[in-house]
Amino acid sequence: MSDQGEIAPLFLEERHTKNTIVLHRLKRVLYSGRTRYQRVDVVEMFDYGLSLVLDGQIQSTAADEWIYHETLVHPAMVTHPKPVDVLLIGGGEGATAREILRHNTVRSLTMIDIDQEVIELCKRLLGEFHQGSFDNPRLRLVIGDGRAVLDAQPDNSLDVIVVDATDPIEGGPAALLYTREFYEIVRRKLRGDGVMVTQATSTFYSADCYASVYRTIKSVFGNAYAYYVWVPSFTSAWGFVLATRRGSPRELGEEEVRKRLEERSVSGLRYYSPELHRALFILPAYLNEALEQRGRIVTDDSPVFIPI
Amino acid sequence: MSDQGEIAPLFLEERHTKNTIVLHRLKRVLYSGRTRYQRVDVVEMFDYGLSLVLDGQIQSTAADEWIYHETLVHPAMVTHPKPVDVLLIGGGEGATAREILRHNTVRSLTMIDIDQEVIELCKRLLGEFHQGSFDNPRLRLVIGDGRAVLDAQPDNSLDVIVVDATDPIEGGPAALLYTREFYEIVRRKLRGDGVMVTQATSTFYSADCYASVYRTIKSVFGNAYAYYVWVPSFTSAWGFVLATRRGSPRELGEEEVRKRLEERSVSGLRYYSPELHRALFILPAYLNEALEQRGRIVTDDSPVFIPI
Amino acid sequence: MSDQGEIAPLFLEERHTKNTIVLHRLKRVLYSGRTRYQRVDVVEMFDYGLSLVLDGQIQSTAADEWIYHETLVHPAMVTHPKPVDVLLIGGGEGATAREILRHNTVRSLTMIDIDQEVIELCKRLLGEFHQGSFDNPRLRLVIGDGRAVLDAQPDNSLDVIVVDATDPIEGGPAALLYTREFYEIVRRKLRGDGVMVTQATSTFYSADCYASVYRTIKSVFGNAYAYYVWVPSFTSAWGFVLATRRGSPRELGEEEVRKRLEERSVSGLRYYSPELHRALFILPAYLNEALEQRGRIVTDDSPVFIPI
Amino acid sequence: MSDQGEIAPLFLEERHTKNTIVLHRLKRVLYSGRTRYQRVDVVEMFDYGLSLVLDGQIQSTAADEWIYHETLVHPAMVTHPKPVDVLLIGGGEGATAREILRHNTVRSLTMIDIDQEVIELCKRLLGEFHQGSFDNPRLRLVIGDGRAVLDAQPDNSLDVIVVDATDPIEGGPAALLYTREFYEIVRRKLRGDGVMVTQATSTFYSADCYASVYRTIKSVFGNAYAYYVWVPSFTSAWGFVLATRRGSPRELGEEEVRKRLEERSVSGLRYYSPELHRALFILPAYLNEALEQRGRIVTDDSPVFIPI
User: Fold this and answer.
1) Would the CB atoms of C11 and B23 count as touching at under 8 Å?
2) How far apart are the first and last CA of chain A?
């Protein structure tokens, strides 16, 4: 997997908690700096290749970004019968947009990111991730506060909303993208078949946070479908929550998923598959229990944070 | 999750590779030593509680040993229509035995471990894990080489064989429990409905090793069913391979699994469930591809090792 | 220096600051716990052997405790023309007492330590350090607050006072052993030829703290003699400050030091020597400058802390 | 000392041995790469500022490079009554040259470094270190093998030779700069008052190496003067060995050193001083003993290496 013999003294430290710390040996550091919003490091790891790190948290790596991005995007896109107008908050690498744009039903994708400097860095350094999606004419990039820009959209105007923000940390830019008030805006902007999905932090290290996001979304939409995926470079499983204005992703069988992907000319997937779609939503017993019993309704007044 | 404010300067280092290293902060160290076969550390982690570590690799922790042990044991046990005589290689903590013995069809469980000192330590320090299974009259504990003891059993005498050995590392005690010659012995000892299962190392950090184990078992049994589970304290997903003399675990629907568990009075599971059984065997696209295309047949002459 | 090939996954982490962190690989952990006053770890390091660690800071190791203890004790003891009554605060390992008791002029050594549990652990586990000094009939061990016990001594009753406390950290037991009010007590208890010495933290990582201790002692005694020694296991140089009621350690030539050591039958020293005595007090230019220009007078109301 | 609150996930790992490892938190990485000869990292540390790292070993940092460079250079330069022609092997940062050129007696300094890429990086990124010394008309820079270039000089043509090479590691570029054959060349090139000095690795982590260098030089010159200095960023004391064709650095008193520095207009020193000169050569008892009793004569056939 790696040139293990080489002397290479640089490491990236990622903390799950104060007590579980991962060190990633680096080949080189392409960029380190602080934008108006966050610390940014673009590094090349021995085991995971090129990586984007925001405020010390790995966002995605060349080795497995497709695991995360396919799993974030396709269950929601497939659950919608015909996604035309899509909105994305976050996803600065351009890889979430890349996956959304695979669906040829999409006519417009509004991508909102708060941090212009991160976007510029990703455009310049992470071509391997965005694969030109920033130049796709169907993409409209807006630099601004995701919540404010979403709020300014007409009601009932979107088919799918994807929230790919950084984790909620104190002082970070994303805390108000995980609250009841935010999800109420999301729901209002969706059309009748509308679907939303959000990343929801680690299922283990921030299990309470994951459960709180789940519970808060459920309180707004009346339903919520939790699923997760193990992302190697995160050294953790990662949680997601999907919700719909009506219908359920669990109703779609393997054949229907295959049909939708084919109709939309979605091909070249490496993680997600028709066979996998329904299995994603079958959780182990303890996680079902945690989601139902832990957590709380998150509000703007009382946001939730991950425990680092 | 943890008393994060406390000063606590001890860490356990676990290496996935030379380039991905995890540090676990420790409350205390209950035991450190070297047996005839391996380095043993019994520690209490802040994030995972009491833990057994062999040759620097975490074997199981109080926080999530049930994730690993339930997933290792129950798919194989349930796949067999009526497991009566079971043999287990490894599993020194006694937790694998604990899960096997939940099935009241089991009349005899032969557990073989090479390292008496580890067994004694586990009996004494890890009551939370074995929960008395060492005292279960259906359990027969044999100290010895797992392969030799298995080879000495009559042919066609076992219903399920579970291999819960340490990872294959150079100089470690387990390298010859992952070879074609070994699996040929396993197959010969199984009765006509017999099922085997083995842990098969990390699906990512030792993907080639995982694929090789899969391919080697498939070459012996004519079939092999790979599955995996994310174990938080391993900071990785863990691979397993199940094989049968006839039949497939994928044929068992949710209702049949529920019926078998109920008939055998298996209750109190926290991870495995009837709903989950079939989903476990649905792998992401890339893993299906890796298992079919990577790896090689492993033989006694040319064993496989994990890359640390 | 070490069995480098052996797998040994335990580390002690010592932080100089949040940005300079040292990891020491451990053979084993003999004890970990929390007394009423502090976290205690007794460990065996590969590179330094048996070690006492309090609140995450290495106090002394078998490999080099004599460097620290000889350098703390002998300059002060030798500077005094005839030390008979000596008082020691801290030094729980018993090694500071061991060095003091080498001087056969000493009739009584009062050793005060706040933490009975640490003393008991050291007696039991660190025989290599104390070498029986706890059983020396000239030693009187008092468990209690060092400052309070010292304050209860008669004025003008002591020849040498050695302060071997832990570093001043917030919430730690030693902060009030580095203030002007404390040093005023020290001075009052010394006889006319009296000498005091204290450890004074790292000369680099806590240079301001070192300078403050120096300046505070100088303000009380009218003189202060800074010196330091590099202690390998501290991965830092360590500072000391000596002060006298009259006279200066810099006035003692090599021959006079040799004569005093011989008269008192002090032998077997591994670090300190007559030739070295005066050289110890010759500091590099930057350290002279730092001591004179940095730091402040430390008071009970405004204690100083090291920056971890 | 540092902005401790900032999230900054990059670290430099420096290994003293496999068992003592130091992690330095980084603000940023200015360069990482591999030249023909070695791995090069130029980083900015929180605690030590800008730093040059070769093959994972810190060469010098802004915070304390003057401690190392003054101590390497001035004892030898001052010991020589009038250094005119000086030769330097290594010292790519330009800071060793900077210190040599402070002595206005120097008419020519030949600096030889094997690694042109390192020199170019230092010129470009480490102005703080070389302070323009590369542009000094008295400096002649030669890219080449230090030993070969030295060997090509006329015999009896140099006053001072300074060896500031990297540590001897297997496969590294410097192993043959620490052997008897090399020191024989050095001696032959020196004039009758000639003085040489070399860095000699850590006094603790590579004590055998230090003693071997000392012993080897002594065998060639008939004398050798060991001294050392604690360099904070090395988290270790660093050894040096000085030798002369005749005379001893220990004969120079404080006044003579002051006079020589003044005559040569050497000013602005931060570490070395007339008072310190003689004290530098007074070693603790254990180090005197180690130097006399450990180590061996190093030859080209049997080089010495540090234990990493």
Assistant:
1) yes
2) 30
**Mean per-residue pLDDT for B119-132?**
96
Instruction: Closest CB to A39: pick one of D8, D33, D39.
Output: D8
The whole-angstrom distance between C277's CA and the closest CA on chain D is: 10
| pLDDT range class, residue D93, cuts 50, 70, 90 | very high
**Taking the CA atoms of chain D, what radius of gyration do you get in angstroms?**
18
Averaged pLDDT of chain A: 95
For chain A, what percent of residues have pLDDT higher than 70?
Answer: 98
CATH 2.30.140.10 fits D10-59, yes or no: yes
pLDDT at residue C3 in the model: 43
Q: What is the ipTM of this complex?
A: 0.93
Q: How many CB pairs under 8 A join A and D?
A: 65
At residue A264, the pLDDT reads 98
CA distances in angstroms from C25 to A298, C16, C18, C49, D175, listed in the order given: 43, 17, 20, 10, 28
Please give the CATH architecture assigned to the domain spanning A10-60.
Answer: Roll (2.30)
Confidence of residue D7 (pLDDT cuts 50, 70, 90): confident
The answer as to CATH 3.40.50.1010 being correct for domain A65-293 is no
- Count of alpha carbons within 13 angstroms of residue A52, beta-carbon side: 26
pTM for the full model? 0.93
Any idea which residue has 């008395």 for tokens?
B132
Please answer yes or no on whether D29 and A10 come within 8 Å at the CB atom: yes
pLDDT at A2 over 70: no
Q: Which residues of A fall below an 8 Å CB-CB distance to D?
A: 6-14, 23, 26-29, 32-34, 39, 41, 43, 53, 55-56
Residues of chain D with a CB closer than 8 angstroms to some CB in chain C: 1-2, 4, 16-25, 45-47, 67, 204-205, 230, 232, 235-237, 269-273, 275-276, 278-279, 282-286, 307
Q: Where are the domains of chain A?
A: 10-60, 65-293
Q: Which of B19, B25, B236 sits opposite A19 (nearest CB)?
A: B25
Contacts of B256 (CB under 8 A, 6+ apart): none
Helix (H, G, I), strand (E, B) or coil at B28: strand
With bands split at pLDDT 50, 70 and 90, how would you rate the model's confidence at B237? very high
If you average pLDDT over residues D243-270, what whole number do you get?
97
Strands (E), chain C: 10-17, 20-34, 39-45, 49-54, 57-61, 85-90, 108-113, 139-143, 158-164, 190-202, 225-231, 236-244
Q: How confident is the model at residue C6 (pLDDT cuts 50, 70, 90)?
A: low
Candidates B10, B53, B56; nearest CB to C12: B10
State which amino acid sits at residue A224.
Answer: A
How many residue pairs bridge chain A and chain B with CB atoms within 8 Å of each other?
125
Task: For the beta carbon of residue B222, count every other beta carbon within 10 angstroms.
Answer: 12
Measured CA to CA, the distance from residue A46 to residue A65 in angstroms comes to 15
Averaged pLDDT for residues B95-114: 98
Q: What sign has the CA pseudo-torsion D73, D76, D80, D83? A: negative
pLDDT score of D1: 36
**What are the contacts of B289-294 at 24+ separation with CB within 8 A?**
B290/B207, B290/B210, B290/B211, B291/B210, B291/B211, B291/B214, B291/B215, B291/B226, B293/B211, B294/B207, B294/B208, B294/B211, B294/B212
